[in-house]
Amino acid sequence: MGNFTTSSILLLFLFSSVVTSLPLSTNSRWIVDDRGRRVKLACVNWASHMEPVLAEGLSKQPMDTIAKRIVSMGFNCVRFTWPLYLITNDSLASLTVRQSFQQLGLLESIAGIQANNPSIIDVSLIKAYQAVVSSLGKNNVMVILDNHISKPGWCCSNLDDNGFFGDKYFDPDLWITGLTRMATLFNGVTNVVGMSLRNEPRGPKQNINDWYKYMPKGAEAVHSANPNVLVILSGLSFDRDLSFLKNQQLKLTFSGKLVFEAHWYGFSDGQTT
Ligand SMILES: *[C@@H]1O[C@H](CO)[C@@H](O)[C@H](O)[C@H]1NC(C)=O
């Protein structure tokens, strides 16, 4: 009996320590949950911004299996990438998973998706994206919706025309439209805890003035459409540089939701380009 009581208490303790009360917000330098307790996001990146615009790997394993594997590896979160055109180009968004893979001639993958994730093979790409978020939610995995690129495909290079405001594939107005739609679509989906507004700004057009001009617009648009999510901003030069914030704070109408994201690679300090 004594042992039983002890282990019950221990289990309760473990349980209460892992359940995060959502939504998240910020408190000084920390991310905290709804009860003010610090939350450390340990996110795995899951790519859904490539040409087929479907989360990678769904031809190999059921999404629920992947979600459970992510949890078993100690992660509590997925940074789930999406290309802007998924939500701004209606003919892309309404393409079914099967059609998307057919267009690319990826017939083997169609058979794999049919076998492992039959429920999404004939739904639209945007519904398939939502289905993955929902599957992660059922497994208590938090999700950050990461706008990774505009035109679906491998990311990123300085010259891919997806790098900075004004690039061929990076129209600031369309970006704000897309962010607003995505924030609206996931308003009320509790496990979506944040949106990172754009991965790795870069390229010949990058400059601090336009960063201060457009990032607040994107942030405000997301916050108005979905006040629950953390609004996550990246810096310049592939998000290796946020140093400009030291001289000029970002002015926003809301507080308690802004997070800065910095990227640090093994080659970051020695890169010459
Ligand atoms: C919209 O998506 C369709 C289907 O992938 C593509 O053929 C078309 O070029 C896209 N339009 C734009 C403006 O990107």
From TrEMBL:
Molecular function terms from GO: hydrolase activity, hydrolyzing O-glycosyl compounds
One of the protein's GO biological processes: polysaccharide catabolic process
A Pfam family per the record: Cellulase
Record has Signal as a keyword: yes
Transmembrane segments: none
Recorded superkingdom: Eukaryota
InterPro entries per record: GH, Glyco_hydro_5
Keywords: Glycosidase, Hydrolase, Signal
Residues making up the signal peptide according to the UniProt record: 1-21
Domain Glycoside hydrolase family: 62-271
PANTHER family: CELLULASE FAMILY PROTEIN (AFU_ORTHOLOGUE AFUA_5G14560), OS04G0481200 PROTEIN
Family recorded in the similarity comment: Belongs to the glycosyl hydrolase 5 (cellulase A) family.
Protein name: Glycoside hydrolase family 5 domain-containing protein
Gene source species: Hibiscus trionum (Flower of an hour)
